[in-house]
């Protein structure tokens, strides 16, 4: 049967997380997860909802949300009520902060911080907490546990990458001809010159793989931190995010930068442009200066109260 739902109603329910199956009265119901994690109980409820209201199939999005396909327009309220019994909600569309994605850095052998914990806090503060805040376009955040970039933080509007900055003790270095650090460095950032290990800071990505591998304890410790990239984007027009010049040393610092970036985008972004375009228009140096200062936080209430971007640029 051809679609009988008006364009206005299709747009309305899209804002609730229901995307029209083109040409029909059926919709994909997008269920929000917290960085891709759901419980066994929630999994069972989603499966039952797919059978009860959809076509029995479950799909997964690139933002780690879950979609049930084939939900009839008339069943949308009942679907939402059914999944709510497991604490699940629909959403993840519009010119808003989108669901945060996270790698498995909490449990991965290469993870340099608790990615689940940080992404859950971002979800709480900025996906849920800022859910009514209209932005020029969608705003995507990704938490990567290490420089392996499995969830592509550098292709998100804001990406966080775990760091372990090697603390090199020159006095302990013996300038070994077969240096264990040189052998283990995946970036080839290290070499022995004039009897001393040299680490090229332009090549080293602070993956931490070298820490603890020198038999003479020249790199016994690493300093944990976070690198933040801004202005990434994938799609028809790809933009690689640029790193802020500072290595952040606490999660609270990171959370403050996330908030400042969202506020900055709302205040100075033009309706319809992505954060990458805002940065290109205003200049990276200017944007970085704003994000590294606290001036924008003093304007927070005014920025949130302003009637901006009532019709944003996101179409999906």
UniProtKB/TrEMBL annotation:
Record's keyword annotation contains Oxidoreductase: yes
Any GO MF annotation of the entry: metal ion binding
A Pfam family this chain is assigned to: NIR_SIR_ferr
Tree of life domain: Bacteria
Alphabetized InterPro entries for the sequence: 4Fe4S_Fe-S-bd, 4Fe4S_Fe_S_CS, NIR_SIR_4Fe-4S, NiRdtase/SiRdtase_haem-b_fer, Nit/Sulf_reduc_fer-like_dom_sf, NO2/SO3_Rdtase_4Fe4S_dom, NO2/SO3_Rdtase_4Fe4S_sf
Alphabetically ordered keywords of this record: 4Fe-4S, Heme, Iron, Iron-sulfur, Metal-binding, Oxidoreductase
Domain 4Fe-4S ferredoxin-type: from-to ranges: 164-194, 195-224
Gene3D superfamilies for this protein: 3.30.70.20, Sulfite Reductase Hemoprotein, domain 1
Cell membrane as UniProt keyword: no
Name of the protein this chain belongs to: 4Fe-4S binding protein
Taxonomic lineage from the root: Bacteria, Bacillati, Bacillota, Clostridia, Eubacteriales
